[in-house]
Amino acid sequence: MPIILNCEGEPCPNPVLRCKQLLDSESPQDMQVIVDNDAAKENVSRYLASKGMHIDDMRKDGGLWTITASRAAGAEGAAAAPAAQPSERSCPVCAPKILVFITRDVIGQGDDTLGSRLMGNFLATLPELGDALWRIILVNGAVRLATDSNPASEHLKKLEATGVSILVCGTCLEFFKLMDRKVVGEVTNMLDVVTSQHVADKIITL
């Protein structure tokens, strides 16, 4: 019988943290996780997959998602989570890992039209950082940059195509009711945010 983890009503990042605790303490072969929102569903399924679990089923019943997962063959040495572990820190002679942490969809204060244009210019210029540009995290109002109605999403798509990791806060997407309009990046949670900040060699915050 699978171990059942009921995370109904629990905010980000609790469902992912509870999955981590269960995997660390019991290493189950089969498990079911119950969550009540799309952001938690995306985050939990992505986390479990990153730890070597096979997602067998994702079923919605009313307002609840049930994620059924089993341990893939030969997955005892689970892969590192997408947020990266401390062991991934750059070596002294390697290019630094630069994390860009964005909290708004505009730059500065005074005029939002100008601020939006500046943000587009900023994202268009980020390739100048070269291989050092590792990850972009969008939280709060910045998640609008990753939606279909924002011209900045095209800049993000180009960056993602070059290998830059783009993480978009799932709780924020849910809050602004934009989950269905995200067109670039992966849904993320606060565990990914914190571990990314820990691993990064340099953080640029807007």
In short:
This protein has helices at residues 14-26, 38-50, 112-125, 152-161, 170-175, 190-199; strands at residues 3-6, 30-35, 53-61, 64-71, 98-102, 133-138, 165-169, 186-188, 202-205.
Stretches with pLDDT under 50, minimum 5 residues: 77-90
The largest sheet is: 5 strands, parallel
Main sheet strand line-up: 8-7-6-5-9
Helix-residue proportion: 25-40%
Number of helices: 6
Second rung of CATH, namely the architecture of the largest domain: 3-Layer(aba) Sandwich
- Structural domains: how many: 2
From the N-terminal CA to the C-terminal CA, the straight-line distance is: 47 Å
Describe the structure.
With 206 residues, this protein is of the alpha/beta class. It folds into two domains: 3-71, TusA-like domain (Translation Initiation Factor IF3, 2-Layer Sandwich), CATH 3.30.110.40; 86-205, Hypothetical Protein Ychn, Chain: A (3-Layer(aba) Sandwich), CATH 3.40.1260.10. Helix content is 32%, strand content 24%. It has six helices and nine strands. The chain has a five-stranded parallel beta sheet. α3 links the parallel β5 and β6 (133-138). α1 (14-26) packs parallel to α2 (38-50). The radius of gyration is 18 Å and the shape is globular. Residues 77-90 have low confidence and may be disordered.
